[in-house]
Amino acid sequence: MFKALLGVALSLTAISCTVQESAAPTGAWFKGNTHTHTLWSDGDGAPEVSVAWYKEHGYQFLVLSDHNVFQDTERWFPVSEDGKKRLKPAELQQIIDQFGADAVQVREVDGKREMRLLTLKDLKARFEVNEQFLLIPGEEVTASFEGHPVHINAVNIAEVIPALKGESVAGLLNDTMDAITAHGVEHDRSVLAHLNHPNFGWGLTWEEVASMRSERFFEVYNGHQGVRNHGDESHPSIEEMWDRAQVLRLTELELPLLFGVATDDAHNYHGAPTAQTGRGWIMVKADSLEGNEIVDAMKRGDFYASSGVTLVDVQRGETEYRVEIETVIETSYTTRFIGTRADSEGLDGVGEVLLETTENPAVYTYKGDELYVRAVVTSSKDHPNPYAKGDKEMAWTQPIQVAPTQ
């Protein structure tokens, strides 16, 4: 079955290797999260609480990606005086204590208190610092088909992008991606779309993930504890989906490499453990801290995903793939170079470990028969606030295509 899917059955003696080399990226590393929620949709934190947390914890950019909304209108959020809904009196007081009474607008309507939600313009004026901290406009374009959730983050947008309806999961996925791409063209800005948590609600199959035609980003790691990163007996893990989709894209579908992002999908700021801040993020190497620059660097693949491991450098070169790790005392690191060989047959040959090493830098020399190569670095250190019990701190780098020709 899978041999036909691959569309290749190459003799190793007949292979020559041409690598789509990634030029060594210039610039600085910027840490950011592209998937975050607030009271503007289904988060439990005021937008200023969310933004302040990320800025205070060393992030350089943040995308507030509330569901099907752009934070550009006046909105007042009700205070739940009985404490049964999201904005409780104690949490309102925490906001006042944190930012000062003059910075929080509260009014009373028909005997009930409401708090004004800060807009993106308000937040930018309060928190942004040139070349130090940036808010990139975003939205989680949220739809479904016959109970299958299709959630796609639109990054660096200019206004809300309406959710669509589709005639299939793959159709809805691609129509939404196309609409986000068209939005970027219409507004003359670099816009990026990434597919979120494909195993959430078992929403998408790996074949549907592979089908993205106008974009090539998806979440390989999401910190929300309800999204089923690790799969189950009947469903592959997200990382397994990545490799299966990669092969299908490069062969039968003739689509470009699929890139993986990590996010924390934060919803909870007041103690609930389900979707907390700081579980996953991306590190982007860009020339400057500006929305178009961040998106353009990601489109080049000049970034990696992380749940705790920091990398000094990633070089996807002409003859070798090189990963240098920033080490922490009393911590060991294992790097696995993952790929699929052109003559693989069956799912067992997809996403195999090409090399496992504890060397730093970790270096893999191409053999010439790999469709693609990527790297995963796993720390011996437990994640301090894990998606799932037992998770280690990790990093995922982007693949490079090693194109065999006869």
C-alpha geometry: globular
What is the H/E string? HEEHEEHEEHEEHEHEHEEHEEEEEEEEE
Task: Please report the total strand number as a whole number.
Answer: 21
SS class: alpha+beta
Low-confidence stretches: 1-17
Helical stretch tally: 8
Radius of gyration: 22 Å
Largest sheet: 15 strands, mixed
In percent, how helical is the residue content?
A: 10-25%
Q: Give the mean pLDDT.
A: 93
Oligomer: single chain
Set down the secondary structure blueprint.
Elements: H1 2-6, E1 16-19, E2 28-33, H2 47-56, E3 61-64, E4 76-78, H3 89-99, E5 106-109, E6 112-116, H4 120-127, E7 134-145, E8 148-155, H5 169-187, E9 192-195, H6 206-210, E10 217-222, H7 238-250, E11 259-263, E12 281-286, H8 291-299, E13 303-306, E14 311-316, E15 320-325, E16 333-341, E17 352-357, E18 362-365, E19 370-382, E20 392-397, E21 400-405
Parallel strand pairs: 2-3, 3-7, 9-10, 10-11
Antiparallel strand pairs: 1-21, 2-12, 4-6, 5-6, 7-8, 8-9, 12-13, 13-20, 14-15, 15-18, 16-17, 16-19, 19-20, 19-21
